[in-house]
Structure formats: C-alpha cells, structure tokens
Amino acid sequence: MKKNKVFFFAQLMALSFSMTGILSCTQNIATIVDSKTADIIVYGGTSAAIMAAVTAKKSGKSVIVVSPDKHLGGLSSGGLGWTDIGNKRVIGGLAREFYQRVYQHYNTDTAWKWQPKEAYGNKGQGARAMDGKNRTMWIFEPHVAEKIFENLVKEHQIHIDREEWLNRENGVKLKDGKIISITTLSGKTYTGKVFLDATYEGDLMASAGVSYHVGREAADVYGEEWNGVQTGVLHHKHWFASNISPYVVSGDATSGLLPRLSGENPGEKFSGDDKIQAYCFRLCMTNHEPNRVPFPKPEGYDPSQYELLGRVFDTGWDEWFKKFDVIPNLKTDTNNHGPFSSDNIGMNYDYPDGSYERRQEIIKEHEQYQKGLLWFVANDPRVPKNVRTAMSKWGLSKDEFLDNGNWPHQIYVREARRMIGAYIMTENELLKRRPTPNPIGMGSYTMDSHNVQRYIKADGFVQNEGDIGVSTKGPYSISYGALTPKKEECKNLLVPVCVSASHIAFGSIRMEPVFMILGQTAATAAVLAIEEDIAVQDVAYDKLKLMLTENGQILE
Fold it and tell me: How far apart are CA 418 and CA 70, in angstroms?
C-alpha cells in the first residue's frame, strides 16, 4: 500500500512539473490532502444532507459530503414532488428557502414547457401548489428539485464526493467514544470533528455501534396505541373491501397461494415484529404525447404476479387513478392507492440491515414489480377495458431521470433503521400527551404507515395490515435528543434522518420537509460542539435554540 501511494504521488508530481511547475504541484497535493479532512463530514446525499452541508458552510465550518448517491436530494428529487406538508407554517429555515426557490422557478415563463402556468392553476388541497403570500411552492417536478440542490451546492462551494459507499465492515474508526474517520469501499478516508449520518438507511450510525431498531415495537414498549401489529384497523383505502380469495383456484386452499401474500400468521394485535412498511417508486408520469414514453414490458414479465389486482377489478373497484397527483407540466407524482398498487408489500424486510448487494436485489425486484404492474394495467385483458384504455395513454415522462431510463433513481425508503438515542420520540409527544424537551424543529403530518404485510384472515380471504393514518391534532415539536446517540455510544455523531423514534412516531417525522429541518438543526449543533470542543450531547440548548431561531427555524 505504501509503495502504491509513493508511486501515485511521484506520478502526480511529475505531471504537475511538466504542466505548471513546482507551485502547481504543491497546490495539487494540498488539495488532495485537504479534500479528505473537514470540520464536519456528512454521509448521505439526501435533502437533509444538503441542508446540513449548507448550514455548515454558512456557519464558517469546512464540510465534505460523502454521498453514496450520484443524484442529490433523495426522494425530494426522486419523484416525491407532491410534498407531504401537514401545516406549512411550521416549515422554516433552509427547508422553507427550498420551497421558495421552487416558487421562484415556476414564476418564470420558461418553467412552463408543456402547459401555460394559468392552465396548471393552484392544484391541491389548501392551495398546496403556489402560496403567493409566502412565495413558496410545494409541488414540483423532480428535475426542478435536483437543480435547486445542485445550485445550493454550487453557490456555497460544497465539496461532494459522489458514489462513495461506506465500508460497513471496518470503515468506521473510533477512539474514546468518537468517530475519527470513515473509509469508503473505494479506499477514500475522511477525517472530521463531527459526523452526520443523513442516509435513509443509517449505515454510518449502525457501523459506529450505535443502538437502533428495525420493525415495529409492541404497543406497550412506549405506552402507545398505534404501534405494533394493527390487524382489523382499516384506515385510508389501502385494504381489501371485498372478499378476495388468496388461492390460485379461487376458494380452493389446496391449489396454493397466489403470489405476493404470506401464509404466515400476522401476529397478535399490538405485538412487535421485525417487519417494515412497504416501499415503492414515486413515478413521474404523463399522458401528454410529446413527452410520453410508453410503459416498457419488463423482461421476465409474469401476469400471474398481478392476479390479486385482477380480482379486485372484478369486484367493480374503480379507484386506480386516484393517486395520480398532478404536478406542473402535465405530469404526476404517482403514489400507491388501493389494496394492490405500487407498494410492494412484504418484499423489503431484508433491506435495512441487508448488504449493498442484497439491497440492490430488493431495489431491482421492486422495479421489476412496478414496471410489470404498469404493463399489466395498460395491456392485460384481465383489466376492465375502460381502465386499460385510459392507462395505455399514460407513460413515463421523457424529460425526467434522463440517465436512468426515465425511472426514479431513488426508491422510497419509508422506514429502515431507527436510532435508539438520547431521547425517543413516540406518539405521546406527537399527540401532546406529554411535553417534548429541548425542541429543535417541528412536524405536523399525520402519523402515517403504509401496509406492512398481506395475509390470510381466519375466514379464508386476503387482507392487508399495517396501514395507519392518525392525526397529530396539530403541529408537534421534535426533541434535540432524538438526533443524538446515547453519549456512552458515540459523542460526535448526529442522525437527522434515521432519528430516535418509535415506528408510529417516525411515520409522521419521516417527511422530506422535516428531514431538511433536522439536517439544518444537526449541522447547527455540530458547529456548536466543534466551537466548544464538547460532545454533541453536551451542546447547551439555549445556545442551540438561539442559533436556530436566528436562522428561521420554528421550534414550537
């Protein structure tokens, strides 16, 4: 290894001498060395990661973003353009600036390529799209969000190393309860004073030995009502309203189970498990022919995978187009809706702790499933003709996700690992049954979990389980302790995405605007910890509160 490094630097120096002389050589070597060291190292390419990096730079600290992703912004630029807002008034700081930049973009004529601005109007509940009074816009195209993140990076001259994956086996070096450095699979090592894990998966957190949970806690663990298995609870409309047989030959248990359901017992109500809510891709679709790419028939397509949906259609169910939420330029943010839809229920359980290879298998299987679903509904005679005809006019948007076949580059990781940190947010804080200590930002969206499993009821018919939608009855505060590990586990790590929360509390916290808020908060706390040379758990709350409010955060 030492010989390789010597040889590399010898080559570099020879090249530099030949081009611009000794001064250039010295500058190039300094750049290489400095690029691996910063005050704050942010691992991740999500919206939280970018907001954290911007905060660090604005606070005068050096920062490096080590992103496993090529594209920045996570779900915010990966198809989730129909923002899950809750109460817009509690979205402050850099998160609000992001949505103000969206507003500024769509306030120009050049933004409206496929339709006039007036034709789009102000779609969505409560004028969700354009808020002229506050100069914010909450609904947008994926490429617009990605451009905003890239502009923020460029404006603040943030150093980003893309497609750098943490070496999860031995890439995290600790000393005296602190992370000293992280190393990626490519061999790059990053040294910093404070580290942020801003990934959806929590890989840095886990590799640092910080406690975490995967799955649903039993309801009695934190004294909750909406945690654990929720058989018999029918919220939203993502359940089988009619009696549907789960067997290959309808009504014949000896014929075997149809694909994509489990024959296992779903578990006792309110009990805990290691299962997680379903993932999907949030698709950007259009029926505007000049910008439409017809749905491709995926290789290995198997129509039997969608027989349950065919049986749902047989009952007269007619809500297939219910969640084709309209975003600008004649496009959609298409989400799951109904008992059998884009959510690939039960097929993601291995994802949180899975190897990179296993995760990639799961992502590809989800893509195969969802592409097959689109083809099935648009083409299969099993589908009612009126639905099939209407669906065949839709396709993927030609001008989105250009380097990925117009398919989103980010799967919707609704939940993976969740830290067990210094303070655990539960439904009790969200419902204001007890106060939240040291508030550092706010959420307000419904406590929302998508379905976790599809099973056979005692009466022999199929049903989904895990879909929950419970109002928080107004905004709630999030505790600073939910971003920090226990002090005895790690003193210089902050976790703004896989926060310390129960399953059902995380169901509300997990919204993209909140992740941006928490990214800003985490970086602010990192700045204070560095300046005072203290553990992140010892940051004085009054100082943190002052800095956050001065920078537009809304805490309570």
Answer: 24
Closest CA to 482 of 461, 466, 496: 496
pLDDT value at residue 32: 39
Question: 55 φ, ψ to 5°?
Answer: -60, -45
C-alpha–C-alpha distance, residues 546 and 398, integer Å: 46
Strand locations in 132-246 (E):
136-137, 159-162, 172-175, 178-183, 189-197, 212-213
Burial class (CB in 10 A: 0-12, 13-18, 19+), 104: middle
What amino acid occupies position 41? I
**How does residue 85 score in pLDDT terms, banded at 50, 70 and 90?**
confident
| pLDDT at site 238 | 94
Structure-block tokens of residue 27: 């500058």
pTM: 0.92
Coil, strand, or helix at residue 38?
Answer: strand
**Positions of E strands within 423-475:** 439-443, 447-449, 453-456, 462-465, 468-470
Place of tokens 């980003």: 160
DSSP 270-290: T--BS--PPP---EEEE--GG
